[in-house]
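User: I'm new to structure prediction. If I give you an amino acid sequence, what do you actually give back? Let's try with this one:
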Amino acid sequence: MMSVSVAGRALVAFALFAALSSLAFAQQSPGGTLKRIADARVIALGHRTDSAPFSFVGADKQPAGYSVDICKRVAASLQQQLKLPEIRIKWVPVTAESRMSAVTKGDIDLECGTTTATLGRQETVGFSNLIFVDGGGILLRTDHSAQRLADLAGKRIAVTAGTTAEKRLPEVLKTRMISAQVVVMKGELEPLAAVEGGKVDAYANDRVVLFGLALKGKDPSKLALLNADFSFEPYALMLQRNDPSFRLAVNRALAQIYTSGAIGEIFDRWFGKYGAPSDLLLAMYYLNALPE
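Assistant: Good question. You get back a string of structure tokens that encode the predicted 3D arrangement of the chain. For your 292 residues, that looks like this:
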């Protein structure tokens, strides 16, 4: 797991890059995605169906979650920035595997989920400023004997296809010389069921995602998180790679959310029961509350 000091430096570097990018393109007239949104008065937002509490489909069959709420605020800000009487939101479901292609093909303008902003992904897509920071965790049954990642040697660990865990967990296991079997599955409900049914020993994903997923289990009291983070996961909203005007407009909206206190309301709604924001998350909000 990346230390807090190293993670903090990474956040500072990301924020400085974002600020410089915003200044560089601040004087450009809107085009690309912004023009399409302005002409159609519609913004296509991608959402996950099973990534509670970030992005999922609620009991009312509508998209819900922390990332979804942020995107709704972003859409409202874009309406004001473009001086439009209204912007209609078109919700488009995506999966961990389909989300990047949905952005590159133009099926969605912004992806509102649990996507980690990595350098490798930035070769294909663009990202907004950060919206959350998390770490990779391990979900298992409470009757499992494992107390640390090394105890899963010789065991089966599920990951979701298309996630950073699919790539990073094998790297961590190799570095630490832990010979566990990584089992790639679709979505997040399938590996949850596999853990509950004993088909795999554990499931690796982002910690907060696992928290929300455990609450959906048949018996949440029989599930627990292993006290062993294996990665640093900075979440951002995914968008087209070469559209600086749209990225600036989205970042302006995020800065408004962070400076207005709205982010506190959103956090409390979805994570209040887990406690207060971590120092690292508070630092992220502060660093991305950029002045106009």
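You can read the tokens as a compact description of the fold. Here is one thing that stands out. DSSP finds ten helices and twelve strands in the chain.
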